[in-house]
Amino acid sequence: MQWAIIAIVVVVVVVFVALTIKIVPQQRIGVVERLGKFNRLLTPGLNILIPVIDQVRTYHDLRIQQANVPPQTVITKDNVQVQIDTIIFYQVVGPEEATYGISDYVYGVRNISTATMRQIIGKLELDETLSGREKISTDIRLALDEATEKWGVRIERVEVIDIKPPLDIQEAMDKQMKAERSKRAIVLEAEAAKQDMILRAEGDKQSKILKAEGDKEARIRQAEGLRQAQELEALGQAKAIEAVAEAEKIRIQLLSTAGLDEQVLAYRSFEALSEIAKGPANKVFLPTSAVETLGSIGAIAEVFKASKDGK
Questions:
Q1: Is Nucleotide-binding included in the keywords of this UniProt record (predicted)?
Q2: Is the separation of the CB atoms in 153 and 90 below 8 Å?
Q3: pTM (2 decimals)?
């Protein structure tokens, strides 16, 4: 009996402690009600409650959560049915409002997202819907923000995962896309051929210009070289003539210094000629002007006149 009482006491103590001490993990928060009325929030860490009087109504996860919205079939402005998949990222920022503002805020977020999506898509044509995912996501997020603000929930982001048009529309779009790609390929090929011709013509033009400039430069250099050669040759000839004249001048000065005037030189020259004329087989022909010149030398002229008569 005593052991039973002890066991009951232990159980009561354990239950009391369990109801009194609450440990809340990080990024979670609890809503405490005292006698059925909101009392306070349980923050992460150790919390003490009054057993039986205080109760934890619910716990909220403060991390960013995601809610998948089931695929919705909506009609565009041009009466085309499309199926849209979306996903919503949200975060609880007001635990008290999230507890008492709405019974199920996730369900509410999904419903508002669906209704807003139908309104937005109904104002857009199919092409605008397919190309306007970012606009659709932004419009849904703004509509959810206005509705969920009083629920203590903040919508972080709305993503349109997929937009599926009907099968026949998809086939028509595929054909259109193929035709557009073929058209772009043909245009690109024509543009490439045009660029090729332009580049080739430009290259040929540049080649001819460079060749003409090269020929011109070569002729200029050749003429310049010829001119310099002629100048150097003329300069060399002038210097040679000058050197010869200078040498002749020096020779004459030396002869004059040695006393060899013209008459002495003429006399010695005709002496040598007279020796040559003495040979039996030698004949010396003198021009008349030369003989007259020799006449000025007196007896020498007579000698040569005799030689002329007796020849």
A1: no
A2: yes
A3: 0.55
